[in-house]
Amino acid sequence: MSTAVAACACDSIGAPKEIRRCDEHHRYWLGDKRLDSVSHVIKTLIASDYSGVDPAVLETARVRGAAIDAYFCEYLQSGTVTVNAGERADVLERLERLISWWDESGLKATAVQQTVYSEADGIAGTFDLATEDMIIDLKCVSKLMPNYGLQLGAYLCMDKQTFPLRDAAILHVTKEKVRLVKYNAKKCRDQWKVAIAWYSMLKQLTPSASSGRGE
Asked: Which residues, in sequence order, are CB contacts of 69 under 8 Å at separation 6+?
């Protein structure tokens, strides 16, 4: 797997009106317009308190999750994985279990790392993968968080033009197992609609809330 840093896509002057993501700065753009990310909206509305968790533990989990996500997406796109030299054992163990689960599941990915957006709301996000009837986001965490449904709701709402009746699920990878956790798609969409309405109100009342809008 290549470790080269993607070129910055933030140069917006005269850019065509199409969605793009700057991986270097974690920003979304639609032509000259910068869009807020789904994760920024959720973080604004639902504060996460990790004050009681060792920062080293958080960083280890973050790096592990990012690596597994990248490897798995590579596998879905190419059918193979090029592992970095000296890769951590916990990453390799979870990745092997995840790929085995996927191969046995019979699921077929029709999209990988798909960016969706709403020009009206000024929001964009990228889900990990999709089948013909389901949007799936990969989570390599010990337990699922309540706001994951909100995240799926965002993708469902913004993807409605291409597949209005798509379902949603989290592909949950832990130290012990892999499981597909399905969510109520209508509930997720309804929750996101409420969330984005409240977020829009917050932006009107506190303009500074739109600063730092990275993914």
From this structure: 128, 138, 140
By the 8 A CB rule, do 139 and 171 touch? yes
Q: Is the pLDDT of residue 164 over 90?
A: no
Residue-wise pLDDT tens digits, 56-105 = 878 888 899 999 999 999 999 999 999 999 999 999 999 999 999 999 99
Architecture of domain 27-204: Alpha-Beta Complex (3.90)
Q: Residues 6 or more apart from 116 whose CB is under 8 A from it?
A: 124, 125, 126, 127, 155, 158, 159
Determine contact, residues 46/199, Cβ cutoff 8 Å.
no
Helix, coil or strand: residue 137: strand
Direct distance between the N- and C-terminal alpha carbons of the chain, in angstroms, rounded to an integer:
22
How does residue 4 score in pLDDT terms, banded at 50, 70 and 90? very low
- Enter the pTM of the model: 0.85
Instruction: Count the neighbouring beta carbons within 10 Å of the beta carbon of residue 37.
Output: 22
Name the strand (E) or helix (H) holding 177: none
3-state class (DSSP) for residue 182? strand
**Domain map of the chain by residue range?**
27-204
| 28: β partners | 21, 35
- Comparing CA positions, the residue from 161, 148, 162 lying closest to residue 192 is 148
- Alpha helix ranges (H) inside the chain: 38-45, 55-78, 89-105, 148-158, 185-205
Q: Write down the pLDDT at residue 3.
A: 42
